[in-house]
């Protein structure tokens, strides 16, 4: 935060405005080393380098897919993998960032789940992912095109990183920095009910998406074990309460991963429509064909099945959209890159060792 930087430099015997200068260099100019901040006196830069670092994430690999999607495997200072994806689209670009390295939730269709939780990321590590992706896409410090969106849908459960995530959003919203306001951010949860309620009380909050994956408790218990803790009834009740915080025209989003012959029948679509209609939710459903991986026991639903599922939802008055998976050739699905990179690096205790 800008104020924290002011206090930090004051602690070094420097005036507060130096802190504001550093904040602008890091966030508006998107510089990632003190050496590049040539508007700061050289001796001050040297002293800064002894006490702090301007960047903590290293780019380990960068992949560009045939459809232009860029995927980054980053590494924290303590050698943990972090995934970030930049998705170019005709009308607006999206940066998908991670809130945790690995994930403690055990969604059965997700490769990240195989890693377990390695660590929750700091606010700085979340912001830095976005800076790395923006610099690569537009150039260091170049203007961010209007409408560029952020989604917290990478590795991890964002609501288990609630405090650092909210701090990251405040930092990114600062006019002297990135100036990306929460209205351009969507946070996707697997269904941490108390935090849905907490988010509703946040004054300047991001949009909410909920990963549903199943229309019944029986199936959702199997696909997303978090459902055993907060079953659909509780989850949708919390969504109903959240609805009071929606602005005019705003909807929240249910993400529904489409798994061949698991959750994609017409009956499943009817059950899903019944569930949403019963709660009269101001919501839309995004249908997301599963990104397949050899390690996972699921296949993606066919395009015809996805379209048929969508048609059933729409016939029941539920707004539904098909999200085409992006960057399949670079494993651009949740958690796939890190899980592949370190497959042999996770030992039995769940601790990660980069080989
Ligand atoms: S789908 Fe998301 S919440 Fe579920 S295990 Fe994967 S990263 Fe975690």
Structure in words:
It is a single chain. The protein has 355 residues and is of the alpha/beta class. It has two domains: 54 residues, Orthogonal Bundle (DNA polymerase, domain 1); 289 residues, TIM Barrel. It is built from twelve helices and twelve strands. It has a ten-stranded mixed sheet with strand order 1-2-3-4-7-8-9-10-11-12, with helices on one face. A two-stranded antiparallel ribbon has the order 5-6. Helix 10 links the parallel strand 10 and strand 11. Helix 1 packs across helix 2, helix 4 crosses helix 5 and helix 10 runs parallel beside helix 11. The longest helix has 16 residues. It is elongated, with a radius of gyration of 21 Å. The C terminus is likely disordered. Iron/sulfur cluster binds next to loops.
* Rounded radius of gyration (Å): 21 Å
Biggest sheet statistics = 10 strands, mixed
Report the helical percentage: 25-40%
Query: What name goes with the CATH superfamily of the largest domain?
Result: Aldolase class I
C-alpha end-to-end distance:
35 Å
CATH architectural designation of the largest domain = Alpha-Beta Barrel
Q: What's the total helix number?
A: 12
Report the count of strand segments.
12
CATH fold title of the largest domain = TIM Barrel
């Amino acid at each position: 935060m800008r104020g924290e930087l002011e206090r930090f430099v004051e602690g070094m015997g420097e005036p507060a405005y130096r802190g504001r200068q550093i904040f602008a260099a890091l966030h508006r100019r998107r510089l990632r080393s003190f050496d590049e901040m040539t508007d700061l006196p050289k001796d001050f830069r040297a002293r800064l380098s002894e006490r702090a670092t301007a960047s903590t994430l290293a780019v380990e690999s960068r992949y560009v897919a045939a459809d232009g999607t860029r995927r980054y495997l980053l590494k924290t200072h303590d050698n943990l993998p972090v995934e970030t994806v930049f998705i170019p689209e005709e009308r607006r670009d999206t940066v998908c960032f991670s809130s945790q390295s690995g994930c403690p939730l055990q969604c059965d269709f997700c490769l990240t789940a195989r890693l377990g939780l390695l660590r929750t990321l700091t606010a700085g590590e979340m912001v830095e992912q976005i800076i790395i992706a923006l610099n690569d896409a537009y150039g260091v410090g170049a203007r961010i095109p209007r409408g560029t969106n952020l989604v917290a849908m990478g590795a991890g459960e964002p609501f288990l990183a609630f405090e650092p995530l909210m701090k990251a959003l405040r930092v990114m919203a600062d006019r002297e920095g990135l100036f990306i306001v929460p209205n351009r951010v969507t946070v996707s949860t697997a269904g941490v009910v108390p935090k849905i309620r907490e988010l509703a009380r946040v004054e300047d909050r991001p949009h909410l998406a909920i990963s549903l994956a199943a229309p019944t408790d029986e199936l959702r218990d199997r696909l997303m074990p978090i459902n055993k803790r907060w079953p659909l009834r509780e989850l949708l009740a919390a969504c109903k309460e959240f609805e009071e915080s929606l602005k005019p025209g705003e909807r929240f989003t249910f993400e529904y991963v489409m798994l061949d012959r698991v959750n994609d029948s017409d009956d499943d679509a009817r059950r899903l429509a019944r569930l949403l209609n019963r709660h009269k939710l101001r919501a839309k459903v995004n249908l997301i064909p599963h990104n397949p991986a050899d390690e996972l026991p699921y296949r993606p639903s066919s395009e015809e099945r996805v379209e048929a599922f969508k048609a059933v939802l729409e016939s029941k008055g539920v707004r539904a959209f098909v999200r085409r998976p992006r960057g399949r050739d670079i494993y651009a699905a949740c958690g796939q890159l890190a899980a592949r990179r370190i497959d042999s690096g996770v030992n039995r205790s769940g601790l990660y060792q980069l080989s």
